[in-house]
Amino acid sequence: MLAHSPHLPIVLDYIDETPSIPAEDEEGIILALQQRHRVRHIRLSTPDSDTRKLVPAIDGEFPTLESLSLGLSQENPDKTNLILHKTLQASRLRHLVLENINLSAVLPILTTSVSLVTLVLNEIYPAHSNPNDFLQHLSLLPQLEIFTMGFHDDASSTVIERQLLDAPVMTHVTFPHLRLFLFGGTNAYLEALLSHMTAPILETLAVHFFPQVIFSTANLLQFMGTTKNLKLTTVEFDFGDTAVSVNANPDEEAQMYAFTLQVAYEHFDEQVSSMVQILDGFGPVFSAVERLDFACEENQWSSGHGEVDPAQWRRLLRSFSNVKTLLVDDVFVEKLSDFLQSEDEEHLLELLPELKELSIPSGDYRAWDGFNRFTDARQVAGRPVTLVRR
Predict the structure, then answer these.
(1) CA distances (Å), origin 2, targets 27, 32, 51, 66, 145
(2) Domain residue spans in the chain?
(3) What's the predicted TM-score (pTM) here?
(4) Is the Cα dihedral 349, 354, 359, 360 positive or negative?
(5) Which of 42, 140, 154, 155 has the fewest Cβ atoms surrounding its Cβ within 10 A?
(6) pLDDT at 77
(7) In 3-state terms, what secondary structure has residue 348?
(8) 3-state DSSP helix/strand/coil percent for the chain, to nearest 5?
(9) What confidence category does residue 158 fall into, taking pLDDT thresholds of 50, 70 and 90?
(10) Residue 126 forms beta bridges with which residues?
(11) Is a pLDDT exceeding 80 seen at residue 139?
(12) Short-list 185, 113, 181, CA closest to 146
C-alpha cells in the first residue's frame, strides 16, 4: 500500500522499549525506508537486536532526508555499536543524532551532509579515529550550530591517549555559527580538539570530564577566550553525591547556564582537588563574576572524605578576584566557618578582596567565630564585609 500511496513526504518516527518490536512493524519500517526519495525524517529507538536489523536498510541516497536520529531504547549488554553504511548519502541532512556508535563510523556521512546544523553523538566509542580525522570532517560543516559529543563511560582513556600520540592534531576549524557545544569524555581528548577549534559566537559550553589524576585546561581557557558571548557574572559550585559541578551565567535571570563543568567524583576531597586543578588559571574567565554560591549534599561531611587542606580552598577562591556577594547553603556554612577560623589574618585579607556581603542561612550554628573573625579582620583593614543571615 505504501508503494502506491501519494508521493507525500514520509516521516518515520518509531520508539519501542519492549524486548522485540512486532514483525508487522519491522516490515512497515523497512518498506518505508525503501522509499528513499520520499523519506524526510527518521527517528528510530529500538532494542539492540532490532536496531541491527533496521539500520542496514538506511543505505544509498536519501535526497530529501532532513533529520536522522538512531539510538537504543535499552541498555546494550554486548556493547554492540551501530553501523552505518559508508554509501549512505543525505545532502539535505540538517539534524543528525547518533547513539552507541564508533566515531570512525560517523565520518563517511559527514562528507556528504554539509548542511548540518545539529550534530549529536552520544555514548560513542573512539576506536580507529583520532581528533585530527574528526576535525577534518567537521571542517566540512560550516553551518553547524549545535554540537554534542559524549564518549561512552567504558571508552578507554589509554586508547584515546594513544591516538593523540599517534596522530597529532593539525587541522584548524572555525565554526562561525556554533552556539552550543557539549562534551563528555577525557580531558586529553577535549584539549586536543579545542587546541584547533574556535567558535566566536558560542553561547553555551558544557563539559563533563571522566575522573582522572591530573587535569589540564590550557586549551579550554584559550578557547573560551576567543568567544565573545561567554560573559560570566554568577558562579555556583554544587558538590553532589556523585559529581561536582561549577555552573556559570551571564546574569542571575538567565534561564540556562552559559558554562558548566562537571567531574564525576563521589568523595568531597576529590571533588575539591579536581576543581582546584581544573580552574587554576581561570581568573581571566571569572574576572567579571560578582556573585559566588556554594551548595553541598549533607552526606558529603559524613563520608569520611570531608576534610580539605585550607590551601586548596585558597587556590579555588583565588580565581574570583571581583566577587561582591558570597552565598553558602546550610550544609556548607559550618565548613566555611571552620575554614575561616583556621586562616591567619594575612590570608583572610587576601580571600575575595572585593567581597562586600557574606550571606548564610539563619540558624543556631556552633561555629560563628570563623565568620566573626573574618568580618572583624576586614573591618580593621578598611574593607568591610556585611554578614547577612537570610
Answers:
(1) 11, 7, 22, 20, 35
(2) 240-245+280-390
(3) 0.88
(4) negative
(5) 154
(6) 44
(7) helix
(8) 30, 25, 45
(9) low
(10) none
(11) yes
(12) 181
How many C-beta atoms surround the C-beta of residue 371 within 10 A? 20
Paired strand residues for 89: 61
Number of Cβ atoms within 10 Å of the Cβ of 24: 8
Choosing among 3.40.50, 3.30.1560, 3.40.960, 3.30.70, the CATH entry for 240-245+280-390 is 3.40.50
Sequence-separated (6 or more) residues with CB below 8 Å from residue 341: 367, 369, 370, 373
Q: Reduced to 3 states, what is the DSSP secondary structure of residue 62? A: coil
- Burial of 103-123, coded b for 16+ CB within 10 Å and e otherwise, reads bbbbbbbbebbebbbbbbbbb
Closest Cα to residue 249, out of 210, 209, 206?
206
Query: How far apart are the C-alpha atoms of 190 and 219, rounded to whole Å?
Result: 8
238-282: per-residue pLDDT in tens?
Answer: 999 899 999 999 877 777 899 999 999 988 889 999 999 999 999
Enumerate the H helices of the chain as residue ranges: 23-33, 48-54, 103-112, 131-138, 157-166, 187-194, 218-225, 268-279, 310-317, 333-342, 345-350, 369-380
CB burial string 340-359: b at 16+ within 10 A, e below: bbebeeebbeebbeebeebb
**Which residues neighbour 348 within 8 Å (Cβ) at sequence distance 6 or greater?**
340, 373, 374, 377, 378
Residue 80 pLDDT:
55
Q: How far apart are CA 188 and CA 168, in angstroms?
A: 12
**Other C-beta atoms lying within 10 Å of the C-beta of residue 43:** 16
Asked if the model's pLDDT at residue 75 lies above 60, the reply is no
Q: What is the pLDDT of residue 169?
A: 63
DSSP-derived secondary structure for 102-157: BHHHHHHHHHH-TT-SEEEEEEEB-TT--HHHHHHHHTT-TT--EEEEEE-TTS-H
Task: Give the amino acid at 106.
Answer: V
- Cβ atoms of residues 16 and 46 within 8 Å: yes
The dihedral of CA 264, 270, 272, 278: what is its sign?
A: negative
